[in-house]
Structures are given as structure tokens and as C-alpha cells.
Amino acid sequence: MNKLNPDHLHFIPLGGSEQFGINLNVYAYGEKLLAVDCGLGFADDRFPGVDLLLPDPLFLEENHKKLVGLVITHAHEDHIGAVAFLWLRFKCPIYCSKFTAEVLKKKFEEHNIKKAKIHVIDPMQTAALKPFEVQFVPVSHSVPETMCLFISTKAGTVVHSGDWNLDPTPVVGAPTDKKVFQELGKKGVLAYVGDSTNANVDGRSSSETEVQEGLKNVFLKQKGRILVTAFSSNIGRVHSILKAAKECDRQVAVAGRSLHRMIGVAKSCGYLMDVDDFVSEDDLQYIPHEKSVLLVTGSQGEARAALARIARGQHHFKIGRGDTVIFSARAIPGNELEINHVKNNLIAAGVRVVTPNTTNEMIHTSGHPRREEIADMLQWLNPKIVVPVHGERLMLEAQADLAKETQIKHVIIPTNGAVIDLSAETPGIIDHVHAGLLAVEPKRIMSDDHRALSERRKLQYTGTAHVSLVLNHKGKLLAPPNISTMGLFDEADEDESDFVATLSGEIADFIEALKPVDLSDEDIIAEKVRIAFRNYINGFLGLKPKTTVHVTKV
Ligand SMILES: [Zn+2]
Ligand SMILES: [Zn+2]
């Protein structure tokens, strides 16, 4: 990276731009850096065998001496989930709300990290992280104590929105206070760096209060047991489910580790105190079916979560005909197949499945602003620059178009690693730094260009073929070539096992025909045989498997 002008304020997204999840953002001013959020994402089929992805923090690691702190806007995994994995690489103090701090402490405990210093900042308070001042402005969203950040420097103020919406009646926490934004707008805002998730959805978000009513109406129609699944961190939704259940004279139990953990954190921060408590899962078994609700993890079809296990019949809680499962959540892009798998299992067992798409009742609302809400925000703040973040390209473009319609002077769509000079006369991208992905395995974290991943991608489509050769010192075969394959042949099929035997003969002939000069070098034999072997298989199957040859000379 070229040296940055210390008098200019720069924004450098390292993750979360042009992708969903994996948020990591950096602000640079006066030779110092401020990081905002450090979240994870779910791996897709480009990462065989991998569940989680992290942003590559190399830029922060290389510049950790300049890093004044990491501020976390809220406790969703796409903003907080990578901290415990990566903190040791850039070690800096962390600033967040009380609820977020409690969630983060649990993650650090799991990773056995004891030295991380977490500073709790109360709503509307300002953290002095020189040369930055960061004010924590509470906004409504689908997890408690979500903060929008007013980041002030001598070069101007940036509003880093985090995730937010304008729910007028959230059931946990207060609505987003427009006056705070309007007042800041009057003072002048250099840039708005904002949530693009629903920027291509017209209208406004529905309220959590409507969801509570919708859930009650769906509950009232059921005669058997009800299972509801929602995001574990959506404490507002847990609150709505408890309220709706009480109005229908049903009692609620909880199944699933992440729900138990989040509810525990919420209670320790004073939430869920004004609703009836849960009954234990064991006690629920003795309550009549029409009086019970089970809140379960697994709204994203996660194979190990409670709902998927119940659907497979592999959980001690059994359901069947007459029972109902309600999905009070949307699918995170990429999870649709797994979710359908769970739904199919449930339906096959005679269970009724209710999703936001199959009922007219409001049983889910998004925590992200739709177009009219974004338009309100831009009008209140009237920023000089808009940088859409937090979304795939089509979402970023949608917010960019909206900003241009709202007469915003400068709209900059970032890519991960872009260095954006916000203070220049014509603000724009002036440079790029490294921004990649890391893949999480049970015992290691590897870069997205790790050879294991590119090989696995290839293997899953083409299979493997291996030949072992035992030659004497003159290059004469001492035994027939031994062939083993994976993902190519069915050895029980006579024709196919005959082909493998024929192949062994062809390779033997091929070696016999090699020139003496080639036969003197094991590497040359291996490479020539590998190419010939691959061509034989390609001729038979039309596939080019990963092919290896092992030569032993005795
Ligand atoms: Zn988010
Ligand atoms: Zn969020």
C-alpha cells in the first residue's frame, strides 16, 4: 500500500463488501487505524469440507501497532463471529455494548483466550480512541443493543450504520431515534457507510409487534404440538414467542445449545424479565400437546441443530401427525437446500410446516432497512458521500442507485481491500490492500488459496486414480501395475472391473515401449505414465481425474 495522507480519512473494507457476512472494516486517519466488526460467514460448495469462513486480517496484523481498537456494532455472527478466531493476530482493545460483550466473553472462553480487554460503552456514550471519537447510537435490529457508530475525526464524521431498521415498535429496546440522526445531519456528515441487505426491497420493514400478533394467530389455529425455530440471537423474537404462547395458554420450552446460551446472556443483561419463564424440556413432555410450544435451534437447516435431528427422528423429542413446525426466520442466502431437506423430512413425518411464504400472517420480519427506511436515513443525514456495504453486489448497487436518486454527490461502491479516500476533493478508491478469506477446519485455519481446497474442489467432481509401479533397475516391471481409484468405478460391476484390469495391461505395454533413456529416470517414468493413464481414463469416461503415479525401483 502507498503511504496514506495522514490528514485524510480513509475507509478500507476488508470483508462484507460484495459478499454476505464476513464483515471487517477499517478506518485510517492520522497514522492510526480503527477496526469495526469482525464477523464470519458460511462456506458454500467452493469450500468442500469447510463450514465457516473468516476475513483475512493480514492488513490489520501487519499494521497492528497503529490499531487503536476494534469496535463491534452488535452480537450477530456476521459482525462478531470471527473475533475469537483472529484476535491473537492483531491484539487490540475491544469496544462494544454490554450484551455484545457478554456474548463475546463466552466466545473467548471457548477459545481459551484470557487476555482480550473488552470495554463496555453505554448507549449514546463516546469512546475516545484517538484520533477517533466513536459515539455509540442505539438502533433497532434483530439482536439487543445494536449500535450505529458516529465516528468523528478532525477530517469529518462518518456514520457507520452497522445493521439497523426503523421498526416503530420493537419489543426489545427502543425504536431508532431519528432526532439523533437529524441533529448530526445538521452539523454535517462526511460519509454514510451503510447496510445494503434489503436495499433492493421496496417499502419499509414490518414491526416485531406485528410478528408477535402473527405468531399468536398461527398458534391459535393449531391443535397439536407447536415447534418454532428462529435465530438464537433474536431475543426480541424469543420475547414475541413467549408472549404469543401465553395468550394461547401454551407453555414454552427450549431445545438447542445456542438458544440456551443466548437466552442466558439476555437474562444476565436484564432482558426477558417481563414475560413468563420457560418450562424445562423434560417438563414439556408431561404437558398436553395443545398446551405446549418448543422453541428450537436450526432455522437454517443446520444438520446438527435440534430441529434437523427432530426431523430425522434422531432426537428424544418426537413429533408427528397433528404437530406443526413454524419457521420464524428467513433463509440466509446459500442455506436453502439444507432448509428444504429439513422441511421434507418433517412433511414426510406428517408434520405441518409453516413458513413466512406459506401464511398470510406476519411471522418474521427482517432487521435490515428497506428502501424507504434508507431514503429516510439519507435525508436525515444528508451525507456528502455514501458507501454501500454489507451485501452482495446487487444489494450494494441497489443502495448506490437509491443514494444517487436522493441527490447524494458521491457514491462509491467498494470491493474488499479497496482503500477509499473520503477526504479527497473527488472521493474515491485510491489503492488496494490484501483482503481474502480464511477457511475454518476443526484443527486449523487456512487461506482460501490453500492447495487442499483447490484439490478437494477438483476431487469432488472428477475422482482420483492412482497407479503404483514396481520396476527393476533397468526399468522393467516386476509386477503388473497396481491401479486404485476413487469416485470413478464400481468394482462390483464386471465390465468396469474388466476395464481397470485392461488399463493395467495398457500401462504395462506403455512402459515397455518407453525409451531406455526415459526408463533411467523415475520422475520421467512417473510423469509419462501419469499423462498416458489420464488419457486412457478420459477416453473411457470423458473425465480427467486427479491422477497420481508412484514408482518404486528395486
Ligand atoms: Zn449483519
Ligand atoms: Zn445484524
What features would you highlight for this structure?
single chain; about 550 residues; alpha/beta; Metallo-beta-lactamase, Chain A; Rossmann fold; eight-stranded mixed beta sheet; seven-stranded mixed beta sheet; 17 helices; binds zinc ion
Structure description:
By secondary structure, the chain is an alpha/beta fold. The chain has three domains: 10-203 and 366-447, Ribonuclease Z/Hydroxyacylglutathione hydrolase-like (Metallo-beta-lactamase, Chain A); 208-354, 3-Layer(aba) Sandwich (Rossmann fold), CATH 3.40.50; 463-553, Ubiquitin-like (UB roll), CATH 3.10.20. It is globular, with a radius of gyration of 29 Å. The structure holds zinc ion (2 copies). Residues 76, 78-79, 163, 390 line the site of one zinc ion (ZN).
Task: Briefly say what this structure is.
This protein has 554 residues and is an alpha/beta fold. It is built from 17 helices and 27 strands.
